[in-house]
Write a structure and sequence with these properties.
Helices cover about 40% and strands about 15% of the residues. The chain contains seven helices and nine strands; from the N terminus they run H-E-H-H-E-E-H-E-H-H-E-H-E-E-E-E. The two termini are about 25 Å apart.
Length: about 200
């Protein structure tokens, strides 16, 4: 795995917090288990993650989420794009999420997360799985935020906003705004933000 892919693996681990390597491998789509095992062993040696023995498959817990496993110098252009890449990675792992949750895991402002989520929704990548209540007292609405669901997971590279849509580098095509999202059933399953969905 390249350094870039290892960095994405680390970002996935910090989002999951407690994970099995098979979960990280499934989320990234371009990793392999041997490389992930070697990377996890290195993180364990630096006491960044803690491994717990299991009969089936060991699981790991991130104990230093603010650690920097890589010495890296990024250009300003890369820094500007890294926030959206982290947000996209978080969405791909969480599947159902709130704006504040994506902002926290990607270390961006809530306004930045809301803006990017709105663009992806307009292009048909996301849908509202649970709408926050708009009526009632402030106390009744407290803690009730809109939950979004990822519908189009086309690959690891973030969709890039354009004037009339988003450019999908994974598919090398422009996805225009106004794409209609078709729901198979009006009845939604119970949604919990931050619940990790296993990829089929």
């Amino acid at each position: 795995m390249s350094r870039k892919h290892l960095q994405e693996a680390w970002e996935a681990m910090t989002v999951l917090k407690t994970f099995r390597l098979s979960q990280v491998n499934a989320a990234l789509q371009h990793s392999n288990m041997d490389s992930l095992k070697a990377f996890a062993k290195r993180l364990e040696g630096k006491r960044i993650v803690r491994r717990t023995k299991d009969y089936d498959e060991d699981f790991f817990t991130v104990i230093k989420p603010k650690a920097k496993p890589f010495d890296k110098t990024k250009s300003k252009a890369v820094q500007a794009n890294s926030g959206r890449q982290k947000m996209w990675q978080s969405m791909r792992i969480l599947r159902d999420f709130e704006v504040a949750q994506v902002a926290a895991t990607a270390e961006v402002t809530v306004n930045s997360a809301q803006s990017y989520i709105s663009l992806l929704k307009k292009a048909g990548y996301l849908m509202v799985a649970k709408q926050a209540p708009r009526t009632g007292t402030a106390i009744a609405r407290a803690g009730e935020d809109t939950i979004y669901r990822l519908l189009r997971d086309t690959g690891p590279t973030r969709p890039i906003p354009r004037a009339n849509g988003v450019f999908d580098a994974n598919q090398q095509r422009l996805q225009p705004f106004g794409t209609q999202v078709k729901q198979s059933s009006p009845v939604m399953e119970k949604v919990v933000a931050g619940e990790v969905h296993e990829q089929q």
